[in-house]
Design brief:
Layout: E1 5-8, H1 11-14, H2 21-35, E2 42-46, H3 51-57, E3 70-71, H4 77-80, H5 87-90, E4 95-98, E5 110-115, H6 119-122, H7 129-142, E6 147-150, H8 153-163, E7 170-172, E8 200-205, H9 214-225, E9 231-236, H10 243-252, E10 259-263, H11 267-276, E11 279-282, H12 291-298, E12 303-306, H13 309-315, E13 320-322, H14 327-336, H15 340-356, H16 359-370
Parallel strand pairs: 1-2, 1-4, 2-3, 4-5, 5-6, 6-7, 8-9, 8-11, 9-10, 11-12, 12-13
């Protein structure tokens, strides 16, 4: 019996120099497949770009474990696949893994859709019209695929609720973290950014979309600050989306010296920020998964996160969880970490998360999810 051919139409997501949660998921699943491949499939990794474009955007792609499996094309292929069968561009495969596009096919092939979240359904104001139409079309096509993979039980429930898809057709494959890549440091290095690692600071790293609930994070910090004057709040991430609103609040409440918007930070700065933070304050309203929770745990940083959505699913019983809409409650959780014994217990509990959410476990879930359609 010949080996099944898996085609991951997600190479352009995995091969990014700067990776957010979505890109990290694809990158690590491909690496685990290349390392383990218990199914003994032949894999293809398809990209919507030329080889020259990849070398300019991500020159280190040759060092990836799966680099020999990459098929290059052209950026317009992503658009053409709405009208032309996928085999024309990437050849015949038995199973296509899709994120954003469900392709047309000439042959009878299985299709697996990967859905990280349904953010566009919950926060349509965050998206431009063309993006909303694109995602709506993708979700409609998802109703006809053979399998849907989500990154959390929370997202699975959303897919059932918003898309009306049978729960038996949806499997959960959690995200993970590679602790070998975590470079916790005990030595403060000089930085060109406006960061003082000797301060007692809370940390947030990510974008400033509405679902991140940064306005309530700042208000919660403000409550804690009124009782612990040493506290600072470093917010790292591109100054977009709700940045102007947040900056206005900080200015009106005379918090400019205490709430510092760092903008984009380098990997080196990120490592130090996590390593020396008093706590990670990650109180989003909604997340598909919440990888910063695992990052905080891996750096030995106490995590304060929301008791809603996927965050509660991951963090309950390990991290400090709180109602993200109540600023006083957020402030109280921050102040709890002044208790050295509690702080130690939180860090110890969080270490157990690192055993549960590994990429190796994610890959095992991935293979288990595929069994019914192979």
């Amino acid at each position: 019996m010949s080996k099944l051919i898996f085609n991951f139409l997600t190479g352009s997501l995995a091969l990014r120099s700067y990776k957010t949660g979505v890109h990290v998921v694809h990158d690590n699943l491909l690496k685990e497949l290349e390392e383990h491949n218990y199914m003994e499939c032949n894999a293809k990794i398809s990209c919507y770009c030329t080889k020259n474009e990849m070398e300019q955007e991500y020159p280190q792609y040759r060092k990836e474990k799966y680099s020999e499996k990459i098929i290059f094309s052209h950026k317009y292929v992503k658009f053409l696949m709405y009208f032309i069968p996928v085999e024309i561009f990437f050849g015949k495969s038995d199973i296509y893994f899709c994120d954003g596009i469900i392709p047309l096919t000439l042959h009878k092939s299985k299709k697996v859709a990967i859905i990280h979240d349904l953010m566009v359904m919950k926060y349509p104001e965050n998206y431009k019209l063309i993006k909303k139409l694109y995602l709506k079309y993708f979700y409609n096509r998802c109703k006809k695929v053979d399998l849907i993979v989500t990154v959390s039980e929370s997202t699975k429930k959303d897919v059932i609720q918003y898309l009306g898809i049978d729960r038996d057709k949806i499997k959960v494959v959690n995200c993970g973290i590679d602790t070998n890549k975590i470079k916790k440091t005990n030595m403060i290095e000089k930085t060109g950014n406006k960061i003082d690692f000797c301060e007692k600071y809370l940390l947030y790293i990510g974008d400033m979309r509405k679902n991140k609930n940064l306005i309530n994070a700042i208000k919660g910090f403000e409550c804690a600050k009124s009782k612990d004057d040493k506290l600072k709040f470093y917010i790292a991430g591109a100054k977009k989306f709700e940045y102007d609103k947040l900056k206005k609040y900080v200015s009106e409440h005379k918090l400019e010296k205490d709430v510092i918007f760092l903008g984009y930070v380098s990997d080196e700065e990120k490592e130090q920020l996590y390593s020396f933070a008093f706590a990670l304050l990650f109180v989003s309203e909604y997340e598909g998964f919440g990888i910063p929770i695992l990052e905080g745990a891996a750096y030995g940083t106490p995590v304060i996160t929301s008791n809603t959505s996927s965050m509660n699913e991951i963090a309950e019983g390990y991290c400090l969880t709180v109602n993200p809409y109540k600023k006083e409650a957020i402030g109280n959780e921050i102040l709890k970490l002044n208790n050295a014994e509690l702080r130690k217990k939180v860090i110890e509990r969080q270490n157990k998360l690192l055993l549960k959410y590994t990429w190796d476990n994610s890959y095992k879930q991935f293979e288990e999810a595929l069994k019914p359609i192979i």
